[in-house]
Amino acid sequence: MIELKNICKEYHSGGAVKALKDVNLKIRPGEFVAVMGASGSGKTTLLNIIGCMDRPTSGEYFLGGCKVDTASAGRTARIRGKKIAFVFQHFALIEDYTVLENVMIPLLKQKIPQKDRVKRALKALEQVGIADLARKKAADISGGQKQRAAIARATACSAEIILADEPTGALDSESGRQVMDLFCRLNKQGKTIMLITHDANIAAFAHRVITISDGRIIKYEKN
Ligand SMILES: Nc1ncnc2c1ncn2[C@@H]1O[C@H](COP(=O)(O)OP(=O)(O)OP(=O)(O)O)[C@@H](O)[C@H]1O
Ligand SMILES: [Mg+2]
């Protein structure tokens, strides 16, 4: 269970920005939630806090009953490594590594033999339709292919929560639909999914759509 209570986030680089204001949210295990809202409304900030990449300025955050807003940096890093997989807005692939090496990075932290790591990474690449690009450098593939590689990297590890920041942003509508089919499959396998999108057709795949405006959640809708 993800539970946010009165979460606020302020940034202080060149004047204060209140990116999140009094956000309350509960997400049950196995839920599939889409987040919508204008550019700059606070979507990525919310995802980063849920993913333990960033801390709230105030408010409480419980993840699986554990209070993470005040946990030590080491503890939050362990929680993140074990439970959470990210698909970043700008892919965050290591350009000099091959696609396969990129997908294997989160698996290195888990105690899996090298051979099985390769197998799992290849399977994840197959699921997103780019197994044939496994040995190519990330620098040498297209934007849409990078998007798929980033999704494969998130799905290859056994994290129970997948946080995806516009995972279909760089894809044409048919590829986007295929990626959403994959997220739906992962969700049926029990993964909790939270996905940011600007596209109502993509949000329609989720169980619930949350709308953020100027740092506040203004709508919680069931699909
Ligand atoms: N590291 C930061 N330092 C200062 N301000 C920040 C930082 N990150 C985000 N902000 C500000 O916080 C607000 C929310 O940003 P955020 O990235 O969460 O928006 P978003 O909804 O994800 O937008 P987009 O759709 O463009 O990705 C914006 O006003 C942004 O300029
Ligand atoms: Mg964003």
Roughly what fraction of the amino acids lie in strands?
25-35%
The percent of residues in helical segments reads 25-40%
Main beta-sheet strand count, sense and barrel state: 6 strands, mixed
How many distinct folded domains?
1
Shape, principal axes of CA atoms: globular
> How many individual helices?
7
Order of helices and strands: EEEHEEHEHHHEHEHEE
Q: How big is the Rg?
A: 17 Å
Strand numbers in spatial order across the main sheet: 6-7-8-3-9-10
Q: How many E-type strands?
A: 10
Annotated CATH architecture: 3-Layer(aba) Sandwich
The CATH first-level class comes to: Alpha Beta
- Give the averaged pLDDT, no decimals: 93
CATH superfamily: P-loop containing nucleotide triphosphate hydrolases
Bound small molecules, deduplicated: adenosine-5'-triphosphate, magnesium ion
Measured distance between first and last alpha carbons: 20 Å
Report the structural category. alpha/beta
For this structure, the CATH topology is Rossmann fold
Unreliable segments of 5+ consecutive residues: none
